[in-house]
Amino acid sequence: MHFHSSLVISTLATVAYAQTITGPTACIPAGGFELCQNLWGAKSGVGSQNSTLISSSSSSVSWSTTYNWANGPNSVKSYANVESTSAKGVQLSKITSAPTSWSWSYQSQSSGIRADVAYDIWTGVPSSGTPASSASSFEIMIWLSGLGGIQPVGSQIVSGISIAGHTWNLWRGPNSNWQVLSFVSASGNIPNFSADLNEFFKYLIANQGVSSSQFVQSIQAGSEPFVGVAKLLTSSYSVSINK
Questions:
Q1: pLDDT band at residue 6 using 50, 70 and 90 as cut-offs
Q2: Which residues are bridge partners to 236 per DSSP?
Q3: Apex 39 CA angle, 65 and 196, nearest 5
Q4: What is the 8-class DSSP label of residue 94?
Q5: Could you give the count of Cα atoms lying within 13 Å of 10 in the half-sphere of its Cβ?
Q6: Tens digits of per-residue pLDDT, 138-157?
Q7: N or C: which end of the chain has fewer CB within 10 A?
Q8: Structure pTM?
């Protein structure tokens, strides 16, 4: 029998508590993850946001984000997200699987909201690198929701891609020194998502010129609001990389 090593340590007891962060760059440890506010585009509008860590363990996390944003309807205000502290630093060619699951829901939302719910996966030539930096080569997004007619960076280049039991449209375009590749759900919201991220990686290697020598530098999951008022709850999220 062949066993695969995993970058995620076996699950410890889940710690349940509610800790809220409000600062534009605030982050807090969350078991095997880090929860961050990341109000990187707040100056394009007016509003506020806070994020609450509900529970966490070494392998899963639950959190919520509440926001109220106005003005600049075509500009992203923030990307409240969790980042795995262990699912990183592996070359795409060495990955055997990258299982993930994400259960989320809007507890409340205003009419006319413009926001996505999406993975943001960063790869580059070096084994480590800060997302959206000079070390970044590709930004791979997986949109589980896109409300209000918003669109990813670039233009749609392929439609009707079947991966992980869902159908996706692929967008591509440049942003600073990296390329953005966005898989957008073709069938609306996917509130209970379970997949092997390696299926997306393999597609991009085979069809979009992404080198298998690229390293996964970061896997983030969160929401990018443009405008609107909402409370987004993630009841459970997990991700790991096996090699």
A1: very low
A2: 103
A3: 60
A4: G
A5: 0
A6: 999 999 999 999 999 999 99
A7: N
A8: 0.93
Percent of the chain residues past pLDDT 70, beyond the cut: 93
> Is 199 a residue of the active site?
no
Q: What is the predicted pLDDT for the residue at 4?
A: 37
User: With 0-12 CB in 10 A as exposed, 13-18 as middle and 19+ as buried, what is 152?
Assistant: buried
Q: Choose the catalytic residue: 34, 83, 139, 199.
A: 139
* Active-site position among 34, 83, 199, 224: 224
DSSP letter assigned to residue 242: B
Give φ, ψ of 66 to 5 degrees.
-120, 130
Asked which of 2-11, 55-64, 117-126 is least confident by mean pLDDT, the reply is 2-11
180-217 as b/e: b if 16+ CB within 10 A: bbbbbbeeebbeebebbbbebbbbbbeeeebeeebbbb
